[in-house]
């Protein structure tokens, strides 16, 4: 394969639109089509992919990424050209596959934008071109639309007979390997004027054998509403004995449809097909004919006349497509970047879209994401909020408040998240597992919210706690819990207990402080951020998350002091049991003693055994703040002294882990260097890494983890499976959580470098991520950031990744330095020279204080970062009196909230 000949995609418009020649020549490509109503599709250049509204309601067969090229069962649109034979407008026919490497191969071009997909395919020998446009209309209709325009590109008249063919799997993903055949016997297949509908009689899945109501349909119309000429509702009849979906007898032999015009006949008990035959038509040279195909999933029988009068015509399709483009542009353009590199700015539009995609798909339903049943994990829930705080800030307060209802009294949390906000479900599969990082994220996200909004009252708002049969961080079972009493924590006298959000946060960060292993770092438990470190639950320790928790404790102590200063609040009301964890207020614990810490924790568990007394303690806010600060400082000193790996190169880094044999994981060992990026990121992101340690860490990362070809690796090569650490090391080195460039950690590393003032270094990190992703020759992905780049440079698990949230956040708050400071706006740009355009400008449009702001930085002269300062600021042309802070300026919220809503306000910032 000559990779050099692979052209890159090109941006073609202002809203992220791009085109790619010969998308057929790259594998694994797919594109998301989705709406807020729950329709979740994916589409490949050959119209493969899947169409579903959830785990139990797949219209097409559920697939994994390999199926994109290996399975024949996809959306298809056939054209039988009289005298010349069958051709697939999707490029998905046995003949076209066989021609793939020959001169007879179709010419193909992909064009796509927010959120639509068009593939144009032409076969010169047949003299035919097909342009297939697909999208899922915005709004709540669970439909996917597809318009096919066939054009005669030859010099003679041709006669065509088109047939749409979409396999109607119509059931739960579980049935793929659980009675696939038997469940086809449940199918009730109806044909009517416009198409085929399947409503299985029962559903066989984990919910039991129940009457099924969900219906799935494929309908079509030609031009402005002409009905199909007939139907092929049964797959086996369509493909014929010995045939297949990529060479179906009904098309290849141009057979008469099984059911004629108007439908009306109903079939039972077979694998179904949305097979729609359109009337034969003559096409003169240059002449076109269009067809619209509608794929629909409904909770009951489909109202076909409503559906088709809305969507079943070419003009309607075009109108909804335009509406859809506007909808998505509106969403994505709440944040816009302008730098000296237009392509990079366009690319960021796709990154900006990604957090929204993750909100809609969860971590499932795209071809690489062939796991999960929808929904998101706890960690992702909180990190996805980071981006939503920037893009859709209106909803975030209630989202955060609801999420806190998942916290248990032992500082751990529910891991099964329900459909409704704030709905957490007890794990009835009895898998006792605690991810030790989970408690650390909520405070980080909440702090961002507080800074963006200044809403300190949020901290004092009350919320319930989650309770199930697990207690003491899954070390014990509550045999009294039966579920009947619900999933809310109660007091000894049976009332539902509520505590402030601040109390929830304190618990999440205080309990881990005491939950330490033999080296006095916080226990790894089930795993931390790296889900793959799951085999060290007894003795493993996560040093890196110890650093994260310590930074949280430190920030919390600062926040309490601010709370007192700003609101005059002198005391804190907390569950009385928590005083045990604020040990310095009473019976102080010796922090150097692991056993003393564990003893205190046991004491706390015993005092609040899945139930609380309901009695509150009134504590002095300063004393609580002091307690937290002492704990934080103790950890910082401990980590700097005991977990620093001194390198023989003169620099060093933080050891990130201890394994299940109690051994330090990282270091320059006889068998090679063992180092993790994760180990560095959290000490850098917070306060654990001392300023003088930072350059050493950077040097060690560059030496041990940076690889020209794939960027910053997640870890060096540990050289084999690590049964005392986790399954990640079972992956081949250079893949996923074992030594790939894992975008999430790379972006956090970049973010941390910016935060600590290492701007050139941070820029290098983000730039490498962009260049790796946007280099199509190697990455073979559409614009956007992938979950990881594998050892060959290929981008993997596209679209759904937490790294997009972090990248967006980093661009807004660090690179462009537009950030909240307890409600006020702080401007602290960290732009490097090449990010300014030719006129010395770089700008960002973003929301702050419910106002659309455009912040335009103008750098006079050729000053790069470190050489400029904010010289002056005007707001809509009027000079702003500046409040200078260390590296930037603060504009009080009042100034912004006095501005009218619904228009863009200009902040012109001169850097000199
Ligand atoms: C994924 C998960 C995330 C986890 C990470 C590492 O990353 O979603 O929760 O921390 O793997 O195991 P993402 O896909 O968000 O980049």
Automatic annotation (TrEMBL):
<dbReference type="InterPro" id="IPR011013">
    <property type="entry name" value="Gal_mutarotase_sf_dom"/>
</dbReference>
<dbReference type="InterPro" id="IPR012341">
    <property type="entry name" value="6hp_glycosidase-like_sf"/>
</dbReference>
<dbReference type="InterPro" id="IPR008928">
    <property type="entry name" value="6-hairpin_glycosidase_sf"/>
</dbReference>
<dbReference type="InterPro" id="IPR052047">
    <property type="entry name" value="GH94_Enzymes"/>
</dbReference>
<dbReference type="Pfam" id="PF06165">
    <property type="entry name" value="GH94_b-supersand"/>
</dbReference>
<keyword id="KW-0808">Transferase</keyword>
<dbReference type="InterPro" id="IPR037018">
    <property type="entry name" value="GH65_N"/>
</dbReference>
<protein>
    <recommendedName>
        <fullName>Cellobiose phosphorylase</fullName>
    </recommendedName>
</protein>
<dbReference type="Pfam" id="PF17167">
    <property type="entry name" value="Glyco_hydro_94"/>
</dbReference>
<feature type="domain" description="Glycosyl hydrolase 94 supersandwich">
    <location>
        <begin position="122"/>
        <end position="312"/>
    </location>
</feature>
<dbReference type="InterPro" id="IPR033432">
    <property type="entry name" value="GH94_catalytic"/>
</dbReference>
<dbReference type="InterPro" id="IPR010383">
    <property type="entry name" value="Glyco_hydrolase_94_b-supersand"/>
</dbReference>
<keyword id="KW-0328">Glycosyltransferase</keyword>
<feature type="domain" description="Glycosyl hydrolase 94 catalytic">
    <location>
        <begin position="625"/>
        <end position="817"/>
    </location>
</feature>
């Amino acid at each position: 394969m000559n990779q050099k000949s692979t052209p890159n995609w090109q941006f073609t418009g202002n809203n992220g639109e791009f085109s790619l020649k010969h998308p057929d020549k790259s594998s694994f490509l797919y594109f998301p089509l989705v709406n807020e109503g729950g329709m979740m599709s994916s589409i490949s250049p050959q119209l493969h992919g899947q169409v579903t509204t959830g785990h139990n309601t797949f219209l097409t067969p559920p697939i994994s990424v390999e199926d994109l090229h290996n399975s024949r069962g996809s959306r298809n649109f056939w054209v039988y050209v009289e005298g010349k034979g069958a051709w697939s407008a999707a490029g998905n026919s046995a003949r076209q596959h066989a021609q793939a490497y020959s001169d007879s191969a179709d010419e193909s071009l992909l064009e796509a934008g927010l959120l639509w997909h068009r593939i144009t395919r032409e076969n010169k020998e047949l003299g035919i071109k097909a342009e297939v446009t697909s999208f899922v209309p915005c709004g709540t209709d669970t439909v996917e639309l597809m318009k096919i325009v066939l054009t005669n590109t030859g010099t003679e008249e041709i006669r065509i007979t088109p047939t749409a063919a979409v396999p109607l799997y119509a059931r739960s993903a579980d049935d793929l390997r659980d009675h696939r055949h038997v469940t086809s016997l449940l199918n009730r297949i109806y044909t009517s004027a416009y198409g085929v509908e399947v409503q299985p009689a029962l559903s066989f899945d984990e919910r039991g054998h129940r009457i099924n109501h969900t219906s799935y349909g494929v309908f079509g119309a030609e031009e402005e509403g002409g009905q199909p000429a007939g139907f092929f509702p049964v797959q086996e009849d369509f493909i014929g004995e010995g045939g297949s979906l990529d060479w179906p007898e009904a098309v290849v032999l141009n057979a008469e449809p099984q059911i004629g015009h108007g439908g009306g006949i109903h079939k039972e008990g077979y694998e179904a097909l949305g097979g729609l035959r359109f009337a034969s038509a003559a096409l003169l040279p240059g002449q076109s004919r269009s067809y619209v195909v509608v794929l629909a999933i409904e909770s009951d029988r489909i109202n076909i006349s409503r559906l088709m009068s809305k969507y079943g015509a070419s003009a309607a399709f075009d109108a909804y497509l335009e509406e859809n483009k506007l909808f998505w542009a509106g969403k994505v353009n709440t944040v816009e970047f302008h730098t000296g590199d237009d392509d990079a700015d366009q690319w960021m539009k796709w990154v900006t879209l990604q957090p929204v995609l993750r909100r809609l798909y969860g971590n499932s339903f795209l071809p690489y994401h062939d796991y999960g049943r929808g929904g998101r994990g706890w960690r992702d829930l909180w990190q996805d909020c980071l981006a939503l705080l920037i893009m859709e800030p209106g909803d975030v307060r209630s989202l955060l408040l609801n999420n806190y209802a998942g916290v248990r009294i032992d500082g751990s949390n529910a891991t099964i998240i329900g459909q409704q906000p704030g709905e957490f479900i007890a794990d009835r599969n009895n898998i006792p597992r605690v991810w030790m990082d989970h408690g650390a994220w909520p405070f980080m996200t909440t702090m961002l919210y507080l800074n963006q909004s200044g809403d300190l009252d949020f901290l004092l708002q009350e919320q319930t706690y989650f309770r199930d049969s697990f207690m003491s961080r899954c070390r014990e079972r509550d045999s009294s819990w039966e579920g009947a009493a619900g999933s809310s924590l109660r007091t000894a006298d049976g009332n539902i207990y509520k505590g402030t959000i601040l109390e929830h946060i304190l618990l999440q960060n205080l309990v881990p402080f005491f939950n330490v292993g033999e080296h006095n770092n916080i226990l790894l438990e089930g795993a931390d951020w790296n889900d793959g470190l799951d085999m060290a639950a007894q003795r493993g320790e996560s040093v890196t998350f110890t650093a994260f928790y310590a930074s949280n404790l430190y920030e919390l102590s600062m926040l309490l002091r601010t709370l007192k200063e700003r609101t005059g609040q002198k005391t804190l009301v907390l569950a009385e049991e928590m005083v045990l964890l604020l040990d310095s207020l009473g019976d102080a614990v010796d922090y150097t003693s692991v056993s003393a810490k564990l003893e205190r924790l046991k004491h706390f568990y015993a005092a609040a055994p899945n139930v609380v007394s309901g009695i509150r303690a009134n504590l002095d806010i300063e004393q609580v703040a002091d307690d937290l600060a002492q704990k934080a400082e103790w950890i910082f000193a401990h980590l700097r002294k005991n977990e620093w790996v001194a390198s023989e190169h003169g620099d060093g880094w933080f050891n990130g882990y201890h394994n299940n044999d109690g051994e330090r994981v990282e270091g320059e060992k006889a068998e090679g260097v063992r180092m993790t990026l994760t180990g560095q990121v959290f000490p850098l992101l917070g306060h654990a890494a001392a300023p003088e340690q930072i350059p050493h860490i950077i040097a060690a990362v560059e030496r041990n983890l940076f690889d020209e070809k794939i960027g910053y690796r997640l870890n060096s090569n540990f050289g084999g499976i690590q049964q005392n650490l986790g399954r990640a090391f079972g992956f081949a080195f250079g893949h996923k959580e074992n030594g790939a460039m894992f975008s999430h950690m790379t972006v956090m590393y970049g973010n941390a470098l910016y935060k600590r003032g290492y701007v050139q270094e941070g820029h290098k990190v983000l730039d490498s991520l962009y260049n790796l992703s946007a280099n199509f020759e190697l990455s073979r992905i559409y614009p956007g950031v992938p979950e990881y780049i594998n050892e060959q440079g290929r981008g993997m698990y596209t679209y759904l990744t937490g790294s997009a949230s972090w990248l967006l956040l980093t661009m807004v708050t660090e690179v462009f330095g537009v950030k909240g400071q307890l409600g006020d706006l702080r401007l602290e740009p960290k732009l490097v020279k090449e990010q300014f355009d030719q006129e010395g400008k770089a700008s960002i449009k973003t929301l702050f204080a419910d106002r659309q702001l455009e912040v335009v930085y103008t750098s006079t002269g050729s000053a790069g970062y470190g050489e400029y300062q904010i010289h002056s600021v005007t707001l809509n042309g009027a000079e702003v009196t500046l409040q200078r802070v260390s590296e930037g300026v603060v504009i009080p919220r009042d100034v912004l909230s006095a501005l009218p809503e619904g228009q863009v306000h200009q902040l012109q910032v001169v850097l000199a």
